């Protein structure tokens, strides 16, 4: 009997040791699981993916994420055309519902996107504004702060305009092809063009929006060429519109005109080599998304003391293409 009791006692002791080991193992496994952190989801919301500028932006962002998949996951989206504001607002709401940690956005409109982005902020999502600056006065109405990363569009426009205007006599007639009038970058580029025109003593005959679109730019330019037979310079606020203008100029057989663009997309390079487009502006758009994503990751990590960051612009002429 004593032997039996001793045997039971021994088994109880063994069970206690085994249980402790098992429980310890479970605890370690639980701790390891709790220490595993899911990579944050960062949403990139762009404007029209029909525009090479934003296609390059998306490719750059995807390559950046592929190099460090453990750091973050990327959800990239764009809209059909530059003026599809409702779709871009819908994309913001979809990302809120999806529970992303950050949204990096190139807004199609500087004012209309603010309410949707404020909803994102209220949901605890970090927001970074790239390319086209959100309207500061509208952000102030919502008491919202969203950092901006992008170039001085005014400076870039002034640079390219000065280069093209210098090829012509004072008082030469100039036409401006504007972007979407409510977009801050469109306003700033127009202002830069106007500054250069005034300084050069040129004559601004008209300024119209083609909504960043190549087809609209061709149509608008064709009408302007008929209205102003002495027109000598067309300043386009992006390269897509410069391509449209060049098409209309070619159809009208007006070899005496100079055209400026903005963005330095590859599609304008053949026309620059042919002398049909005189110059453009490099604003390193493919890097915008990377700058914005890295900014967002800093914010997620707790670096909340963020300020706007200005990126570079550079005049690009035909001579620069082969360097």
Could you list some keywords that capture this structure?
2 domains, alpha/beta, 323 residues, six-stranded parallel beta sheet, 11 helices, disordered N terminus, Rossmann fold
Describe, in plain words, how this protein is organized in 3D.
By secondary structure, this protein is of the alpha/beta class. The chain has 2 domains: 139 residues, Response regulator (Rossmann fold, 3-Layer(aba) Sandwich); 130 residues, Response regulator (Rossmann fold, 3-Layer(aba) Sandwich). 48% of the residues lie in helices and 18% in strands. The protein is built from 11 helices and 12 strands. It has a 6-stranded parallel beta sheet with strand order 2-1-3-4-5-11, with helices on both faces. A 4-stranded parallel beta sheet has the order 7-6-8-9, sandwiched between helices. A two-stranded antiparallel ribbon has the order 10-12. α5 links the parallel β4 and β5. α8 crosses α9. The chain is elongated. The N terminus is likely disordered.
Helix content: 40-55%
* Rg calc: 28 Å
Could you spell the SSE succession in H and E letters? HEHEHEHEHEHEHEHEHEHEHEE
CATH superfamily of the largest domain: Response regulator
CATH class of the largest domain: Alpha Beta
Q: Report strand %.
A: 15-25%
Give a topology summary:
Layout: H1 2-35, E1 41-48, H2 52-66, E2 73-79, H3 85-98, E3 102-105, H4 114-122, E4 126-130, H5 136-141, E5 148-151, H6 153-165, E6 173-178, H7 184-200, E7 203-209, H8 214-227, E8 231-236, H9 239-251, E9 258-260, H10 269-273, E10 280-282, H11 285-300, E11 309-311, E12 314-316
Parallel strand pairs: 1-2, 1-3, 3-4, 4-5, 5-11, 6-7, 6-8, 8-9
Antiparallel strand pairs: 10-12
Helix pairs in contact: 2-11, 3-4, 6-7, 8-9
């Amino acid at each position: 009997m004593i032997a039996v009791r001793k045997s039971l006692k021994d088994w109880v002791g063994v069970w206690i040791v085994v249980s402790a080991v098992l429980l310890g193992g479970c605890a370690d496994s639980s701790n390891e699981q709790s220490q595993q952190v899911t990579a944050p989801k960062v949403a990139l919301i762009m404007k029209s993916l029909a525009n090479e500028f934003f296609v390059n932006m998306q490719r750059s962002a995807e390559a950046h994420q592929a190099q460090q998949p453990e750091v973050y996951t990327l959800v990239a989206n764009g809209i059909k055309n530059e003026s599809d504001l409702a779709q871009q607002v819908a994309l913001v709401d979809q990302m809120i519902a999806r529970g992303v940690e950050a949204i990096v956005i190139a807004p199609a409109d500087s004012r209309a996107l603010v309410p949707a982005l404020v909803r994102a902020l209220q949901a605890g999502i970090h927001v970074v504004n790239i390319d086209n600056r959100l309207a500061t006065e509208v952000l102030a109405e919502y008491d919202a702060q969203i950092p901006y990363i992008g170039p001085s569009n005014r400076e870039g426009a002034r640079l390219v305009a000065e280069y093209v205007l210098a090829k012509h006599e004072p008082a030469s007639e100039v036409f401006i092809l504007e972007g979407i009038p409510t977009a801050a970058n469109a306003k700033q580029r127009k202002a830069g063009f106007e500054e250069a025109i005034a300084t050069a003593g040129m004559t601004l005959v008209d300024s119209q929006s083609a909504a960043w679109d190549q087809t609209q730019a061709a149509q608008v330019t064709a009408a302007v060429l008929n209205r102003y037979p002495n027109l000598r310079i067309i300043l386009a606020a992006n390269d897509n519109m410069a391509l449209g203008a060049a098409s209309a100029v070619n159809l009208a057989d007006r070899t005496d005109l100079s055209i400026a663009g903005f963005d330095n997309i590859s599609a304008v390079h053949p026309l620059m080599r042919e002398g049909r487009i005189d110059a453009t502006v490099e604003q390193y758009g493919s890097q915008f998304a990377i700058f914005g994503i890295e900014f967002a990751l800093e914010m997620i990590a707790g670096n909340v003391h963020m300020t706007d960051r200005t990126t570079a612009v550079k005049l690009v002429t035909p001579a620069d293409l082969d360097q």
